Amino acid sequence: MRNCSARSVSITKKINKEGSMSKEDVIETEGKVVEVLPKTQFRVILNNGHEILAYLGGKLRINNIRILEGDKVKIEMSPYDLTKGRIIYRNK
Chain centroid to CA 49: how far? Predict the structure, then answer.
């Protein structure tokens, strides 16, 4: 884990045998839900001010965790598309 300039951003890197990064690389950050959209999608503002479209992760769907406007959430994002993310945890 690395902290970048006092913001809680961690990057998980898995390196395969050739030394390149694999597709499981994710960026974890936190944000706040500002709008609830249909089909378990949410508009989230990250701690660094960027706004992304996030969907509910598998374990949260299975356990029927409800997320409302104003909830603080933990997001996983792919380094290839920084405009979309997956909600993996809901803070209380």
Answer: 14
